[in-house]
From TrEMBL:
Key words, A-Z: Membrane, Transmembrane, Transmembrane helix
Membrane spanning stretches: 28-53
Superkingdom of origin organism: Bacteria
Name of protein: Multidrug transporter
Length: 198
């Protein structure tokens, strides 16, 4: 008997709630207000993404993605400077015989894909030795990507581009370009060309 009473009371409450909802137009206003707040939230997320991506360099056809200069500081010890087109310069102390540069290429996801590339950022700079035992013991990797990029993963997808290992040589100057979906480093001066040939 108690169960039927509770079911009857719930039916009366449901009918009373339906009457209140249908007679008063607050439900429509609530739905419109919620949609407006959701649109404001989406606009805020996009502004936040733009502010994070604004400092990133954009790829321009025919323009190098980075310029790399190398200075010797001792036996198998080098200072490697990576200059990006937006004016950012990153300096790294590397040990070894070879260097490699990795970039993260960012592309907008889904509905934002029509915007084209979102930009690119320096992912990793590494040095290695030609002698395997020495490389295992002393190889260095620098990863400058900060955690502040992690929230962008649901707005952008990333492609890792790597330039192959190239020789470290005092005074060498290289430019890094994207060709056919891969990175290529090109020598810009005599020291780089001599190291490239050796």
């Amino acid at each position: 008997m108690a169960i039927w009473s509770l079911l009857g009371a719930s039916l009366v409450l449901a009918l009373a709630g339906a009457v209140v909802l249908l007679r008063h137009r607050w439900l429509r206003g609530w739905l419109i207000g919620s949609a407006g707040l959701a649109l404001w939230g989406a606009a805020g997320v996009l502004v936040w993404a733009v502010l994070l991506l604004q400092p990133l360099p954009r790829a321009v056809d025919g323009q190098p993605l980075a310029t790399v200069s190398i200075r010797a500081e001792g036996p198998q010890q080098y200072q490697l400077s990576v200059a990006l087109p937006n004016g950012d310069v990153h300096d790294y102390a590397l040990r070894g015989d070879l260097w490699q540069l990795d970039l993260q290429w960012l592309q907008w996801r889904s509905l934002l894909a029509w915007l084209g590339p979102a930009g690119y950022r320096l992912q990793e700079v590494s040095g290695r030795y030609l002698v395997l035992e020495q490389d295992r013991a002393q190889a260095e990797v620098h990863n400058p990507v900060a955690n502040r990029w992690q929230p962008l993963q649901w707005l952008t997808h990333e492609q890792l581009l790597s330039a192959r290992f190239l020789p470290l040589a005092d005074g060498a100057l290289f430019e890094v370009v994207r060709a056919g979906g891969v990175l290529q480093a090109r020598p810009l001066n005599g020291a780089a060309e001599a190291a490239w040939r050796d």
